[in-house]
Amino acid sequence: MKAKELMHAAPVYPFSAIVGQERAKRAILLYFINPASGGVLLSGSPGAGKSLLLRGAAALLGTRRSISVPANVTADRLLGAWDAAAIVQGRTMTHQPGLLAEADGQLLLTDHLNLLPETIIKEIVRAFSMGVIHLHREGISAVRSSRFMLLAAMDAEEGGIPSPILDHFGYGIALDTAESLTSRVEIIRRQLQYERDPDAFVHRYRAQDEALRQRMEAAARTLPRIKVGASMLQLAASIAKEAGIASSRAELALIEGARAAAAWDERGEVTSSDIREIAECVLPHRMSAVADESRAADHSPAAPDSAEQPGHSPEDDTSRDSRSPDGSPDHAASGSGRMTTTSSPASDPSASRDEDEEGQRLSASEDRIILPDDGFRLQPLDYNLRRKMADGGLGKRGRAHANMNKGRVVGAVTPHRKVQADVAFDATIRAAAPFQTIREKRDGLAFAIEPGDLRQKKKESSVGASLLFVVDASGSMAARKRMAAVKGGILSLLQDAYVKRDRIGMIAFRKGEAEYVLPITRSVDAASKHLRDIPTGGKTPLTAGLVKAYQTLELEKRRNNDTLPMIILVTDGRANESPSGLTSYADVWKECLSAAEPIRASGIPCLVLDTEQGFVKLGRSKELAQALGAAYRKLENMDEEGVATAVRLTKR
Predict the structure, then answer these.
(1) How far apart are CA 501 and CA 493, in angstroms?
(2) PROSITE patterns under this entry (predicted)?
């Protein structure tokens, strides 16, 4: 039964049947006409049609075989390996080709490119750019041809790709999400037709696909005759320069893409309209890093108080946050851990007096957005604190050794058990070599290996951290603008998040709730967008933030065993709001300490950055750090880079 199912696998969804995504389809066609314009990288949210476009394009090309790179591909499968049998039997060295060698002269498809290990991505891009593979394995080197066409796809929300790698792709297309009701209905209608009778559906669009293929082949034949005037070269260079792109690959992709566009439209010369059309396909993905730098340079001082802005009433905020438990709706914690209570404690004079004065000053600054500023300096961490961070923190994070089945080979070890895989052939042969003169030669073998000679590859892989910032976004934070330093520190950490394989998320707690404002991600673009729109103001539901952080990282650990979780709590410790409706400051504080217990018991490393200001200091952040078993640091003398430095030291 299974054999029949495999033999009658559903045909590929036709390229011409895909609804919308006209820019992506045109970019793919132009790339097929002129491969010199560079590969195509599609970016879009799940369900946007990335995989459909890749498979449909591969079927449309027809003349080339498509090779797919699986998400769990190993370096040996990608690059190839040496024939172990030939080595042992003393024959000529034989290299077994990997996927990149098999793709020579063919089409390579890579879905979810950004989720592949960094080393794998670099090997793919290197082979694509150079056209050859330089293989170095087991102390032996070889070179294989690897000239292929490349179509790739990624989901930007799952993590970004460094700009040097993006620059190797000629076209970078952000897929559109179907907005109109008509388009959405048509997508559903065609999908149902395809699922009901795939063969009939494919047959219905076969003529359209064939027409595209014939026109594409005709354009490719006329491509050598397409002329590019000097003025068009100058226009391409000026557009790339104006976009702030330093690499010359942009201009080359622009010109080659414009030549393909002219050939497709059956014109003999490139026009300015060709250049400008292709610029929209080859420049945006190269401009992302430039845009990030521009946004960072455009940081302005803190926005004006919301009380001075039209349509804002400070009294509304004050009344909303000062209602007694009896006058508030009875909200409960949702299943996701989102706390929505708005109760307000009303005792503990030692704390309430300072809170009341501060609340009066802050009611007008409710909901304003604060951007990173300067003016704070980080004091060097003392030796005992560093040692505490190392002992209780992540240790040598980023490294995992011989018992792992993935990573780069760093040596060989004698296995404690039977070797199942990853035999280190060079080390095995070296171990057996001294005993060849006294061992009996078996039939047909020039080299005798016994079980005791076997050596296993010792591997090492980078393991990233999941850094969860839990930030007090209440009015007490906004008053001293410490949110500015926090946001700046997170943005600084994001710059090396890809290299370190780290992922960063953020929970903000204010006004009776803890909100997951930044899902854990490696995407610099996604994080920057979320961090620049975080409002501040209101009371401090610290317990809600701790509960949400614990639930989030417990779920993250179940989803991803290879990550190292860490909490960075940024607060002044002045909890004044309870998810369970407590009205005493003392009871609210005890509730916070109780919420810290499961976090400490789980062994999740924590760092508490204390933002408490003012003449009267309660020192509760330090007490909370002790309850969490966390490293502690005052934020009073930190700037945005100081926040990042403290986190980096904790991760070591």
Answers:
(1) 11
(2) VWFA
**Residues 544, 437 share a domain:** no
Establish if 518 belongs to a structural domain. yes
Residues 62 and 188 in one domain: yes
How are beta strands 606-610 and 513-521 bridged, if at all? unpaired
Number of structural domains (the chain) is: 4
Closest residue by Cα to residue 490 from 649, 393, 372, 374? 372
Is the same domain home to 521 and 579?
yes
- β-strand pairing of 171-174 with 503-510: unpaired
Mean pLDDT computed over 166-178: 83
SS3 state of residue 144: strand
The pLDDT of residue 4 is 43
> 179 or 62: which carries more pLDDT confidence?
62
More confident residue, 637 or 535: 535
The two counts, helices (H) then strands (E), for the chain are: 25, 17
Q: Are 51 and 66 in contact (CB under 8 A)?
A: no
When pLDDT is averaged across residues 510-538 and rounded to a whole number, the result is 74
Of 377 and 114, which is predicted with more confidence? 114
Q: Which domain holds residue 519?
A: 332-397+463-651
Two tokens, residue 179 = 């907005």
CATH number at residue 265: 1.10.8.80
Among 181, 95, 77, smallest CA distance to 142 is for: 95
Helix 22-33 vs helix 272-282: crossing angle, to nearest 10: 110
Tens of pLDDT, residue by residue over 554-572, are 887 776 666 788 888 888 8
Contact 535, 368 (CB under 8 A): yes
Query: Quick count: other Cβ atoms within 10 Å of Cβ 196?
Result: 9
State which amino acid sits at residue 630: A
Place of tokens 């909901």: 367
pLDDT for position 399: 44
Q: Are 60 and 174 contained in the same domain?
A: yes
Query: Which residues, 6 or more positions from 470, have their beta carbon under 8 angstroms from its beta carbon?
Result: 506, 507, 509, 514, 545, 546, 548, 549, 567, 568, 569, 570, 571
**What is the Cα–Cα distance from 364 to 85, expressed in whole angstroms?**
77
Q: What's the pTM?
A: 0.58
How far apart, in whole angstroms, are the C-alpha atoms of residue 47 and residue 422?
37
Sorted by sequence, the CB contacts under 8 Å of residue 92 that are 6+ apart come out as 86
